[in-house]
């Protein structure tokens, strides 16, 4: 306990303690720019009703692992619908996107070479560690570095893995160039579409679809059902050989209880809604551009958002924490990202746009970001301490 308390004290000193605060259903009365509910579907009546119906019919839990009793007709239907929606030949549903990444990267990359972008999500980092492969982390967005590592490899098989939309910076990976490099060197490309599904491309079919890579046998996609689809769970999309490998050898597939039926029902209803509402993803992207323009107009460092994620880079963790608290004081809940979630010196606020944001919401955001801009220009209160 002494060791744990001392380590906690060091994190406290560095501004790196985490606060686990339960929220109320209405986000404590704050405007929510922190969740990943990009299309506002998690509380949409149609989605909630679909979850209730599926739960009534199939039960609250799936009762077992997918290979025993945890596969219902709903799971099979969801797999068919996800594959059809994203233009993939097949899909395999997991109980989270995290577990989908663990299986895709660890099982497909096993005992070979994995080339992973420095900005990739923690679930990919963990999957690389589980793969027992040589892992080379390349600088963020550097396709030439990827190609060089592939060309100089001694391993027989190789896998290139990248987020489609990076979870904090919100930028899109150079998918076409990465695919070209992967194909040239006989490697598979794994693309994590967590922040792209439902937001990027026609009807929100994702970044790989938008790049013309859907259905390519050498492209494997992972998705989460927990962000734009408003549900929970994940999936891997790919060729029959890929899906078969994961069913037989993907440990996070085999040894985990199947996705809860209510989540499968909710995700199916969300896919119906996306097919019927082509304007929804574009609205989320438009709101993101408006948020970024607001931040930039106030002199804050941000980026051109390609999806719904808008970073506001502040630097020191303490400054980011103070800025997030200030936003809450002004009625807006934002995400606050500090190392190790972001590189040292790049602590930031993460604003997520939602398709259902109204123009008066943006007025409230302006008030909050104005206060943040003033804080950054004011005297340092030991931010770098
Ligand atoms: N990949 C990325 C890029 C993510 O941001 C996340 C969620 N934070 C995941 C995977 C994991 O998905 P899930 O939350 O469904 O486990």
Give a verbal description of the structure.
With 385 residues, the chain is α/β, with parallel strands linked by helices. The chain has 2 domains: 119 residues, Aspartate Aminotransferase, domain 1, CATH 3.90.1150; 232 residues, 3-Layer(aba) Sandwich (Aspartate Aminotransferase, domain 2). 43% of the residues lie in helices and 15% in strands. The chain is built from 14 helices and 11 strands. The strands form 2 sheets. It has a 7-stranded mixed sheet, sandwiched between helices. A 4-stranded mixed sheet has the order 1-10-11-9. Helix 7 links the parallel strand 5 and strand 6. Helix 2 runs antiparallel to helix 11, helix 4 packs parallel to helix 5 and helix 13 crosses helix 14. The longest helix is centred in the last third of the chain and has 19 residues. The protein is globular. The structure holds 4'-deoxy-4'-aminopyridoxal-5'-phosphate.
List keywords for this structure.
43% helix; 7-stranded mixed β-sheet; 15% strand; Aspartate Aminotransferase, domain 1; Aspartate Aminotransferase, domain 2; 385 residues; 4-stranded mixed β-sheet; alpha/beta; single chain; binds 4'-deoxy-4'-aminopyridoxal-5'-phosphate; 2 domains
Short description:
The protein is of the alpha/beta class and 385 residues long.
């Amino acid at each position: 306990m002494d060791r744990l308390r001392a380590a906690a004290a060091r994190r406290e000193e560095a501004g790196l303690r985490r606060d686990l605060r339960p929220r109320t259903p209405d986000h404590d009365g704050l405007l929510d720019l922190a969740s990943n509910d990009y299309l506002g579907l998690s509380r949409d009546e149609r989605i909630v009703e679909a979850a209730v119906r599926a739960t009534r019919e199939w039960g609250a839990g799936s009762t077992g692992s997918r290979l025993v009793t945890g596969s219902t007709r709903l799971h099979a239907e969801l797999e068919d619908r996800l594959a059809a929606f994203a233009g993939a030949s097949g899909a395999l549903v997991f109980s989270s996107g995290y577990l989908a990444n663990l299986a895709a990267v660890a099982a497909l990359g096993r005992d070979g070479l994995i080339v992973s972008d420095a900005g990739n999500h923690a679930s990919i980092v963990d999957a690389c560690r589980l793969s027992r492969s040589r892992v080379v982390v390349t600088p963020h967005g550097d396709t030439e570095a990827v190609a060089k590592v592939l060309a100089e490899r001694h391993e027989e098989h190789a896998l290139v893995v990248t987020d489609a939309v990076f979870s904090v910076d919100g930028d899109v990976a150079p998918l076409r160039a990465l695919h070209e490099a992967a194909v040239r060197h006989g490697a598979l490309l794994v693309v994590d579409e967590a922040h792209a599904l439902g937001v990027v491309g026609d009807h929100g079919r994702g970044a790989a679809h938008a790049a013309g890579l859907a259905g390519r046998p050498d492209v494997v996609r992972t998705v989460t059902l927990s962000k734009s689809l408003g549900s929970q769970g994940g999936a891997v999309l790919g060729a029959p050989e890929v899906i078969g490998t994961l069913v037989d050898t993907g440990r996070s597939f085999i040894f985990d209880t199947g996705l809860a039926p209510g989540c499968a029902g909710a995700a199916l209803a969300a896919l119906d809604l996306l097919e019927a509402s082509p304007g929804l993803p574009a609205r989320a992207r438009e709101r993101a551009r408006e948020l970024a323009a607001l931040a930039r107009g106030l002199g804050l460092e941000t980026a051109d958002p390609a999806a719904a994620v808008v970073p506001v880079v502040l630097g020191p963790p303490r400054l980011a924490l103070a800025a997030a608290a200030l936003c809450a004081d002004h009625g807006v809940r934002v995400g606050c990202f500090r190392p190790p979630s972001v590189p040292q010196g790049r602590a930031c606020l993460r604003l997520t746009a939602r398709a259902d944001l109204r123009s008066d919401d943006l007025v409230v955001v302006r008030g909050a970001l104005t206060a943040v801009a003033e804080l950054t220009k004011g005297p340092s209160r030991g931010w770098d301490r």
